[in-house]
Amino acid sequence: MNLRPNIKTGFSVCPHDCPSQCALEVEVLDAHTIGRVRGAKDNSYTAGVICEKVGRYAERVHHPERLLHPLKRKGARGDGEWQRISWDDALDELAQAMLQAEERYGAEAVWPYYYAGTMGLVMRDGINRLRHVKGYSGMYDTFCVSLPWTGYLAGTGRLGGVDPREMRKSDLIVIWGTNPVNTQVNVMTHATAARKERGAKLLVVDIYETGTMKQADHGYVIRPGTDGALACAVMHVAFRDGHADRAYMAKYTDDPAGLEVHLKDKSPEWASSITGLGVERIEELARLIGTTKRTYFRLGYGFARQRNGSANMHAVTSIPAVMGHWSHEGGGAMHSNSGIYRWNKSMIEGLDVFDPNVRMLDQSRIGAVLTGDRYDLGDGPPVTVLFTQNTNPVSVAPDQTRVKQGFARDDLFICVHEQFMTETAALADIVLPATQFLEHDDLYQGGGHQHIMLGPRLIEAPGECRSNHDVICDLASRVGAEHEGFNMSPRELIEWTLVNSGRAGLDELEQQKWIDVQPDFETSHFLGGFGHKDGKYRFAARWHEAKHKRHTGTMGPVDAMPSFPDHWPVLQEADETHPFRLATSPARTFLNSSFNETPSSMKREGRPQVQMHPDDIAANGLAEGQKVVLGNELGQVRLHVSANPSLQRGVLISEGIFPNHAFEDGCGINTLVGADQPAPVGGGCFHDIHVWIRPA
Ligand SMILES: Nc1nc2c(c(=O)[nH]1)N[C@H]1C(S)=C(S)[C@@H](COP(=O)(O)OP(=O)(O)OC[C@H]3O[C@@H](n4cnc5c(=O)[nH]c(N)nc54)[C@H](O)[C@@H]3O)O[C@H]1N2
Ligand SMILES: Nc1nc2c(c(=O)[nH]1)N[C@H]1C(S)=C(S)[C@@H](COP(=O)(O)OP(=O)(O)OC[C@H]3O[C@@H](n4cnc5c(=O)[nH]c(N)nc54)[C@H](O)[C@@H]3O)O[C@H]1N2
Ligand code: SF4
Ligand SMILES: [Mo]
Known about the structure:
Elements: E1 9-13, E2 23-30, E3 33-39, H1 52-55, H2 58-61, E4 71-73, E5 82-84, H3 87-105, E6 110-114, H4 121-125, H5 127-134, E7 138-140, H6 146-156, E8 172-176, H7 180-183, H8 186-198, E9 201-206, H9 211-214, E10 218-221, H10 227-241, H11 246-252, H12 256-263, H13 268-275, H14 279-291, E11 295-299, H15 309-323, E12 332-334, H16 346-349, E13 360-362, H17 366-370, H18 374-377, E14 385-389, H19 393-396, H20 400-407, E15 413-418, E16 430-433, E17 442-445, E18 451-455, H21 468-478, H22 490-500, H23 506-512, E19 514-516, H24 521-524, E20 580-583, H25 599-605, E21 609-612, H26 614-619, E22 627-632, E23 635-643, E24 651-653, E25 689-695
Parallel strand pairs: 6-14, 7-13, 8-9, 8-11, 9-10, 11-12, 14-15, 15-16, 20-24, 21-23
Antiparallel strand pairs: 1-2, 2-3, 4-5, 4-16, 17-18, 18-19, 20-25, 22-23, 22-25
Helix pairs in contact: 3-21, 6-15, 10-13, 10-14, 10-15, 13-14
Bound molecules: ligand MGD (2 copies), iron/sulfur cluster and molybdenum atom.
């Protein structure tokens, strides 16, 4: 969409939890109103392209249902009766609840709970400053990145990779376990350019025919959780047929001989029985990857949302190390660039007062935590105050039944700071209205690219909305928390963080709008060595040493993890009672639970559905469009069945995340997702679910 030349334009950054982190140009119609939004043309990664949902962002900023005033619950919890109150009264009540909890049980009874509704560093992470100063319970973030990052790091030792813009120099682009047409549209921009400019081929590995696969030259639909097996077969063929780069491996990897022996029996036949893919197709895939030096792997998050997800990520990441793709321009891999920024977040997060002895509670186990599971609480007190920003757990978290039981507790004080009356906010005692990104200043980094970016405030917030930062600072003064960061403005925090991270200051960033910090070619391709001490890529992963951010221990069945790439059979397998495997892949115009409030997204996504192979539909006596029940040991979900012949038999897909209330009975898809902690460091297994299906 073109912006109109006679209208003032501001620059910004898409704040959503999306690796694309697009640079935006926004029409500012007046101090309160925006018009059109489009991708910044002169940002080399965004290159003028954004997804349709953010192209229509005026719809979300000026949504008639935005929260505008602090609200206090009037009737029973969740019955929808609210009374408008002042900010002072709302924050006093919250502060009082926090102080009381602290007095009665100790500070760990308070749980600040957040995630990445905004990816701005100030507005997302500032809540940690309050938690660190006060010694409130910490949140161990496992929804998203713990499984995939851990798998990538096990091999490479550093969270970074080949410049995504280098895809234009590739001959084969392998999109593995991500659906960028839905989830990060810019990958397609660069992949499409490579196809046009040099005839590059696009290869996609997923568990159904996604929009991305529809555009690909080669698509491979495998069974969920079998990527490790496929990767092993690809490497087996490489050793067998002489495509393995032995000179590269000798220089850059830990144990190529051991790997070769280990892979001897991991043949295409072996992988075929696990992945459900034909032997010839595996041979074809292995040949394409083995014979193309400029092969670029774009590794997604999706395929790691399985109980063997870290092991599978490590197995797939090992392919370019066997082939030596890394040493070629346009070759190698990219999963996330989050490790390249090296921020000093001391002021934003109050890391100077961080106490490692304060307990961490697993984000994905919020249901267990709130219902008092001793495993989660340890020797510590119950959580009696929950304060959330930037997340909607009563929709997105696993084991929804237990989450809802937790939220129903009478002795739990809940405060939700939100832009909309989400399903989480609807269960609160106090709801606080939050600004949106165009209404506050923040600093951003690209996960799927390499820019540091500024998103300045462009318009006034509606009603009485306040930013996360303002709320945290005000709350801090009411609960007696002192830290220099509470006295700084967002811009001062941004300036401090930039300068103390060795970057240009705010003025320069503001002038340039974004700064490209891609490490040089040598570093991005690990040509000076991988991130481990000895500089080697590790085919033999050391899972016991795995850690994720501030959580130092491992969890789950770490002892059983295969060290070399393998198929690790710890999935929630189908069985006689639960003959189907279900995955909950992302819908195009929802972003997690965000946008499920905008009319255009609701219209496009329609109603909750489960996709099923037509032969399975027939074999189970069902009909297309029929209402069905999906169930397992955790609960039941009602939705409609639709036919998709691209699926393997026995596999179901339900795109989301629809709100719970879009389902009859109010039980959304995450009712079926388990909250057990996968090895080695926990994580959300949103695509690893077994279920039965029957007519409703
Ligand atoms: N439109 C939209 N965009 C989004 C989001 C959204 O919900 N909607 N979510 C945002 C967030 S928070 C994140 S983390 C990113 C995630 O973005 P992605 O990296 O794309 O990851 P996922 O969204 O988990 O799933 C991607 C794909 O993995 C496939 N998949 C599932 N299991 C397997 C498997 O075992 N093997 C293989 N090969 N494939 C599998 C799914 O079918 C899906 O097509 O996207 C962000 N962008
Ligand atoms: N079934 C299924 N479930 C999943 C997944 C899946 O693939 N399938 N994916 C999982 C993944 S990868 C993730 S990351 C999680 C994400 O789950 P969430 O973190 O809950 O998802 P979001 O929708 O990104 O953001 C949540 C809320 O943040 C609010 N918000 C945005 N900006 C601000 C702000 O500045 N201040 C305040 N106070 N609030 C703000 C938004 O209004 C939104 O309601 O979901 C997980 N759940
Ligand atoms: S593709 Fe992702 S980062 Fe870009 S505008 Fe859409 S949601 Fe935002
Ligand atoms: Mo995520």
